[in-house]
Amino acid sequence: MPAAALQRLAALLPPERFLTRPVxxxxxxxxxxxxxxxxxxxxxxxxxxDEVIALVRLCHELRLPFVARGSGTSLSGGSxxxxxxxxxxxxxxxxxxxxxxxxxxAVVEPGVINTQVTTAAAPHGLHYAPDPSSxxxxxxxxxxxxxxxxxxxxxxxxxxxxxxxxxAVLATGEVVEWGGASREHIGPDWCGLFTGNEGLFGIALEIxxxxxxxxxxxxxxLAGYRTLEQAGDAVSAVIASxxxxxALEIMDALALEAAVAAVHAEYPPGCEAVLIVELExxxxxxxxxxxxxxxxxxxxxxxxxxxxxxxxERAAIWKGRKSAFSAVGRLSPDFIVQDGVVPRxxxxxxxxxxxxxxxxxxxxxxxxxHAGDGNLHPLILFDGREAGALERAESLAGRIxxxxxxxxxxxxxxxxxxxxxxxxxxxxxxxDEIGLMQRVRAAFDPLGIANPGKMxxxxxxxxxxxxxxxxxxxxxxxxxx
Length: 481
What we know:
The protein is α+β, with helices and mostly antiparallel strands. It contains 17 helices and 19 strands. The strands form 4 sheets. Strands 12, 13, 14, 15, 16, 17, 18 and 19 form an 8-stranded antiparallel beta sheet that branches. It has a 5-stranded antiparallel beta sheet with strand order 5-6-10-8-9. Helix 8 packs antiparallel against helix 13 and helix 13 packs antiparallel against helix 14. The longest helix is centred in the last third of the chain and has 18 residues, at 389-406. Mean pLDDT is 91; it is low at 459-474.
């Protein structure tokens, strides 16, 4: 890239917010998937939406690739930089612009941390429902880009279910505003289309979030089982009963070992798996539902069932679960967090097959997953210092993904495709379907400069820019006829 072009970008920001020295770029070379690294040309640190817009417009003019980044917690390489482009980091756009308890909405900038929304809403008896395990550090902009879920997505849904409005700058430099403070809109669901785009369309500048009343009462049960299959059967029994818990989570023995080592979590001894079930809602409703739940849990023959007696015990149960990913680092110098989905009825079969594959290749796998919706998170342990260890771990991860698709599931539940899974996209989608996705991407980013190299295998879609048409009309996705 010509030095003059880099100087034009640098002129948009104060010198201390345009980073080019290797020591400054090192922190941005990878995201949560640290097996992949790339050094960008520069890192831009805007503090306002206008600065972001100016950066994107100049990138479009220069045909310069850019990658938007929040806290870098992506586990699929979704915010991996490109060597011939820049990173636009959004952490300083971290203001809650509006919180309206009457309308039950919050308007936030993309760098706002997930838990900060609930903290701000709590005095009004409200909360923001999506709760990824990284919620204490991940940003709302990243949550929108990857349609993040969390332990409570069984009842409350994913990020897309809670985004009411978006103001964004597309990769063309066009600023768009979709949705608003209400769900009552006519026409296409642009917010739904943008949420989960993995940064391939542009950058969200303001996000209007739906807030929900905080549950009046919680009933959280930790049950230990001799086998993973028993825990899976208990999940099936809970769902079949008609109960809709706020969360249904399972951790296997290896994940339990890690959580105990990391946060001193207490689990029933002699268990191969624990199940966390949480009911929430009005006090009277929970009182009725907990009786049914207790009966179901008793019938599932756990080693021990332990209801949380107070908020402190409930917090301790969830601390163990939400620390599981990072805690596995105590058991292995390196690990891959995979993310796939299987039909709930085939959960036990999937776990058995993962165990068989693990033993076959001699690689340990810890299982942590959102059991209520079949979203698996196998943690594949390896030592990157050993020759070929990463390749063997990635091969096992690929086999698990293929198994999910073969079972009628999905390549991803909430982590996205990123760079890690792009070569597996044809296992789930036909060439025509992938072509359609590329046309949608090209409608928003005809030059292919927004987060290039992610999601799609092979080359990017060609530019489809035609003057005078809406971006999706250009791509043939919609028609005004």
